[in-house]
Amino acid sequence: MEWQEQSQEPHVAIFPGFGSGHHIPLLELARRLTVYHGFSVIFFTAKWMGRSPHQNLSSSSGGMIRFIELPDVQIEGDHAGMPFLVRIPLLLEKAQILVEDALASFSFPICAFVIDVFGIPMLDVASKLEIPSYIFFSSAASLLCITLYLPTLANNIQISFKDADFPIEVPGLPPIPGIDLPGPLQDRSDMSFNWLIQHSLRLHEACGILVNTCQEMEPEQVKALKEGKVLSVPEKRPSIYAVGPLISSSLSESDQNEGCLKWLDRQPASSVLFVAFGSRGTLSDNQIRELALGLEASGQRFLWVLRRDNPPPIESTMTAEAQMQREVLPEGFETRTQDWGLVVDSWAPQIGVLSHPSTGGFLSHCGWNSTIESILHGVPMIAWPLFAEQKTNAFFLVKQMKVAIEAKKGTDGFVKRDEVERAARELMEGEERMEMRKRMGELMEKARIAMAEGGSSYNAMASVASVWKEMHATNKPSTT
């Protein structure tokens, strides 16, 4: 069916953020809108947004998702030293006219424009075209509470949060140490801090915010959001929809055939500690060596996705890259651990690993995608956050949900080998492991029920879909 002939279907446009961590949940949102709620979806992509795994989705959407790749955009001037968060809006401002022209070219009305939380400049496009705008918040409800409340916090607390010797209080959250707030919020003199305040104020402009969580996972946070307790602009109150947790819905055939999954097939049930730091997480060479020695000393089976701080040059071959990755490991490490450990280079099919019956734990950077993937497969965690909001996620996983063990860092941010050994042993064979697995299993069941038909997240998505369908009915061209 040609797209211009699909004018009777309600259409939603989606603008994702940067990188796979922002693309994956929005792709799943698009799939669910088409499969369960009868929408057609326009999904924007661009090379400058990072690699999008959308190719695997086209066949399962029945042709109801159209991917539009935007041309390249360039920022004038030297922005090499500018924080990534500050560079983002400069790129998006250049792309505004491209998105506006694309949306204006369709002969059918767009009933809603769903914009990733880092795509804020696209609110101006929606306003100009008179399309209702909705924000997709790809992280936890706890982080959304902090984000919306940030202007109030900044006004009430005049020092940098990293220097606060008292807990930070946000409605819906337990008191949280300042050092556990997201990295860009730590220092008031950081360019990112002021940008995030303005960013927070603009979130209030949206008609609604879709959050990648469920109320069963974060009940107090979702309640505070829905009641408007965290709003810094009370007269502007976007509707809140907890529609998650949204993760990639299926493995591709190439994922299923990965050698590491075959290795897992040969391991005992719940015996393997999966070690991975996400698509952007890397460790220094010294930290990699310390982690390796800690894993070896623990005696626990492990599957480790190895990524270095200084990756091999782009022109290197896969074989050369693997060799250069492994050069940093302690001499003889792989030989000594070959009967119970496996190191893979740069990537592994994470959902395939977490869903495997041999996987019993996950040493993770606590990015939200990885966190909800672990929850949805009932795998308890070791929390080793690296940057951004990961420290905040780790705080809630360890202190509130109690489904993770903290890998404690020294004042220099370094995790020593004996701490790696302690955390691995405690998670995989410690006295508390069964209670932690029980709590994670209960959380998994609640999250899965929330996403199923009749669950809280399914109903939240149905609710916002109903609003959009009403808009479609109002704007639909007459057929008489």
3D structure, described in words:
- α2 (84-104) packs parallel to α3, α4 (141-156) crosses α5 (191-203) and α4 (141-156) crosses α6 (219-226).
- The chain has 480 residues and is an alpha/beta fold.
- It has a 7-stranded parallel sheet, with helices on both faces.
- It has helices spanning 20-37, 84-104, 122-129, 141-156, 191-203, 219-226, 253-256, 259-265, 285-298, 318-326, 333-336, 350-354, 368-376, 390-400, 417-429, 433-451, 456-475, and strands at 11-15, 40-45, 65-69, 112-116, 133-137, 208-211, 239-242, 272-276, 301-306, 341-345, 359-364, 381-383, 404-406.
- The protein is 41% helix and 13% strand.
Main pleated-sheet profile: 7 strands, parallel
Number of helices: 17
Anisotropy-based shape: globular
- Helix amount, in percent? 40-55%
What is the string of helix and strand elements? EHEEHEHEHHEHEHHEHEHHEHEHEHEHHH
Strand order of the largest sheet: 3-2-1-4-5-6-7
Number of strands: 13
Q: pLDDT below 50 for ≥5 consecutive residues: which ranges?
A: 312-321
- End-to-end Cα distance, whole Å, is 22 Å
Average pLDDT reading: 90
CA radius of gyration: 23 Å
Structural class from helices and strands?
A: alpha/beta
Beta fraction:
5-15%
